[in-house]
Amino acid sequence: MKTEFYQTLVRQVEALISGEDDLIAAMANFSALINDNLDDLNWAGFYIVKNDQLVLGPFQGKVACTRIAMGKGVCGTAAATNTTQRVADVHQFEGHIACDSASNSEIVVPVHQNGKVIAVLDIDSPLLDRFDEQDQLGIELLVKQFETCLFG
Hints:
Oligomer: single chain
Strand order of the largest sheet: 3-2-1-6-5-4
Radius of gyration: 14 Å
């Protein structure tokens, strides 16, 4: 069931992003799509790599941390290691940065252009263990479609 759900979202990403060449506009609509379609979220958006740090990009949710050092917190770790970080309980993640005290679980997926990490997609939930392996695969697929639509 989740596989079909994410396949439907992939098609929506393609329809929404195809033909758009502005990264910020695409990120804004993508984060809105995620926020509108995934249940039990309290934040969905991007941090963009600028000058060896992550800078807040388009998002849906409460106010957020503006800058995150590479390698720090869940987002910085995902960017620095170029790996998806799926955290069942953020309070158990060493160095977690609590931008919103309501967040209990998180998934962060690197976004690439020409093989280089240019941003991360950060999704937070007030539920513990909100994201399972199927969610991870689905969200990674959405990010891959996002990359394909924008960068070819």
